[in-house]
Each structure stands twice: as structure tokens, then as C-alpha cells.
Design a protein that fits this description.
The protein has 2 domains: about 5-75, 60s Ribosomal Protein L30, Chain: A (2-Layer Sandwich); about 80-245, Alpha/beta knot (3-Layer(aba) Sandwich). The chain has 9 helices and 10 strands. It has helices spanning about 10-20, 35-45, 55-60, 80-90, 105-120, 135-140, 160-165, 205-210, 230-245; strands at about 5-10, 25-30, 50-55, 70-75, 95-100, 125-130, 150-155, 170-175, 190-195, 215. Helix 1 (about 10-20) runs parallel beside helix 2. The two termini are about 35 Å apart. The model has no long low-confidence stretch (mean pLDDT about 90).
Length: about 240
């Protein structure tokens, strides 16, 4: 286990890549150029990193110092391999449980989801390499340390993970308002992977087309949706309730 680290400067990021550090996200100043930056670009192409091109003001807020137009976040955790986690879970349990997060990009929501997942026996959390919340100090803090106790997996696309889950005999259930089926009517006692969506946009339509079932929570008030971490907790504990029968 290591602390969340922010590094900056082109040479520092090149060295991090060469040393196989787990880089969670790279922020690059828009319009950056130069020979050393071209060298960095070649390194980044080989690794398929999560990159955001931002104004210099964003970088100035992230660090104090001569960032040279580059800031990177080193993850405090190592990411696991999807196939290994799924295979181990299927060997160890008759009804493993997974979470797939489709573009959940708020670090505190991410941390809260990890905490609930650990408390409810989730075997692994899958996120996309691009568009997901980075693992920051806030993520670690909000998770109350759970982030170090549950496998985190990065995949190129959530759809790839869904295909793999289904091929492994795992039912994929989407938490979405775009259905008439309530959560409590869906069988969650079998091997299950829950899909939770972005805080604002929900689950993308292309992902919804692939799932085995869709489910929603009953809403009694005038507000149409819950915070994603709260909704995730409700879904996870319905899984627990069904499996305690």
C-alpha cells in the first residue's frame, strides 16, 4: 500500500511510465508541444492512459510548482486482472457478486460505493480505463480503507466486461430508471453483476442494450433519483437480503 501521489513535470511522468507505476490519470495542458513532450506522447501511446487535456489554470490548481504542462496521479492501489478475479470468485463462491461502474466520475461517490461493496461481500469492482473517477486521497478516505480490501479492475470498455461476465454464467443487472421492473422482483441470489451509471447521465444506452435485466428503486418523493452511491447501497443490500433467505 502506498499513499496517493501527484507528480508533475514531463521528465517525472516519463520516468513513472518507465518504472511501471500505476498511473491513474494524466492531465496535459492544451496546446503543449516540444521535443520532450513528443517523447512523452510516444510513451503514453503504448500504455493507453487516461488523459485529460485541460487549461493551464487547472494544472495550477492541482500543484504548486513548475509543472511544465503535465500533472499525473499515481494510484495508491494496484489494479487486478478481470479474468483472474472472476475465476477465483467462481471457485470460492456459488454466488459471487460484482459491481460494474459505467462512467461514475465523482471521487467521493466512488469511495462510498467501494465502502458499501466491501461491507456487502462484493468480489470485485470493474471500471473503465477512461471516464471513471480517479483513485485519489478523497477516494481512499471516503472508502474508509475498504479500497485496500477489494479488487479493483480497469477494462478498456465496460461492454467487454459484460460479455465476459455473461460468458462466465454471471447475470448482469442494470440499475436504471428506464424500466418498469422494481429491484425486489429481480432474482439476485444467483451469480450477479450490478451495473451502476454516471451521476448525471445514468447508464449509457449501448450498455443497457447488453444487460440481462433492468431494475429500479421505488421513488416515493418528488425528486426523481438518488445519489449513485446511495442507490448502489440499496441495490447491494437487496442482494444480501435475498441471499440470507
Amino acid at each position: 500500500m502506498k499513499d496517493t501521489t501527484t507528480i508533475f513535470g514531463i521528465r517525472a511522468v516519463i520516468e513513472a511510465i518507465q518504472n511501471d507505476e500505476t498511473i491513474d490519470k494524466i492531465f496535459i495542458q492544451k496546446g503543449l508541444s516540444g521535443q520532450l513532450f513528443q517523447e512523452l506522447q510516444q510513451k503514453m501511446k503504448a500504455g493507453d492512459y487516461n488523459i485529460s487535456y485541460v487549461p493551464v489554470e487547472k494544472l495550477n490548481r492541482l500543484v504548486k510548482g513548475n509543472h511544465q504542462g503535465i500533472v499525473a496521479k499515481i494510484s495508491p492501489v494496484e489494479f487486478a486482472d478481470l479474468e483472474t478475479v472472476v475465476e477465483n470468485a467462481l471457485q470460492d463462491s456459488t454466488s459471487p457478486l460484482f459491481l460494474l461502474l459505467d462512467q461514475v466520475d465523482d471521487v467521493r461517490n466512488f469511495g462510498a460505493i467501494i465502502r458499501s461493496a466491501e461491507c456487502t461481500g462484493v468480489n470485485g469492482i470493474i471500471i473503465p480505463k477512461k471516464g471513471a473517477a480517479p483513485v485519489t486521497a478523497d477516494t481512499v478516505k471516503t472508502s474508509a480503507g475498504a479500497i485496500f480490501k477489494i479488487p479493483l479492475i480497469k477494462v478498456d470498455h465496460i461492454k467487454d466486461a459484460i460479455y465476459y461476465m455473461q460468458a462466465s454464467g454471471i447475470k448482469v443487472v442494470a440499475a436504471t430508471e428506464k424500466t418498469d421492473d422494481l429491484l425486489y422482483a429481480v432474482d439476485l441470489a444467483q451469480p450477479t453483476a450490478l451495473v451502476m451509471g454516471n451521476e448525471g447521465k445514468g447508464i449509457s444506452d449501448s450498455v443497457l442494450k447488453l444487460v440481462d435485466a433492468k431494475a429500479k428503486l421505488p421513488m416515493q418523493g418528488t425528486i426523481g433519483s438518488l445519489n449513485v452511491s446511495v442507490a448502489c447501497g440499496a441495490f447491494l443490500y437487496e442482494v444480501v437480503r435475498q441471499r440470507l433467505k
